[in-house]
Amino acid sequence: MALEGTVHSINVSGGGVPKTPQGSAEVRVSGVVGDRQADLRHHGGRERAVSVYSLDRILALQREGHPIVPGSIGENLTLAGLDWTRLGPGARLEIGEVLLEVTRAAEPCQKIAASFRDGEFTRVSNRRHAGWSRFYTRVLREGVLTAGDAVVVVPAPQGMAGA
User: Were 48 and a residue from 79, 93, 117, 136 both cysteine, which residue would form a disulfide, CB within 3.0 to 4.6 Å?
Assistant: First the structure.
């Protein structure tokens, strides 16, 4: 896998999970237009504006027997073909006219338990399973995204990875 991939799906909801796919979306500094979070204490805001996850990780989790699908754990963007272990704080995702910067791993909560066999939502906890978490990003450049858009990962500057 590489530092290039594609947008598999763009997922939004009126609040909470699951988020459902749509063909395209406008991305603003505040997040994906049309998406809301039910818990603003733990989600949303400029440093957590857009949540991203890996389609390849979803498929691996499905092989483990988890009923997870794109958007079911609250990610706004499901990305395919990326080496997920190469992402971390400071990495930038160029997607068409949009530029995102990873701010941190998104710790899971019980609200996504239905996506996991036996409710084991900690399967995507970075603390328990490094390299398997979703990531939060901030929006550095606004624009419109479409499913199928190319994603190019620009690694974190020296000294920022894992911060």
Answer: 136
Q: Mind listing the pLDDT tens digit for each residue in 90-123?
A: 999 999 999 999 999 999 999 999 999 999 999 9
At residue 163, the pLDDT reads 41
Contact at 8 Å (CB) between 90 and 103? no
User: Given the structure tokens 């190469």, which residue do they identify?
Assistant: 86
SS3 21: strand
Class of domain 4-154: mainly beta
Which residue has tokens 């504006």? 49
Domain ranges of the chain: 4-154
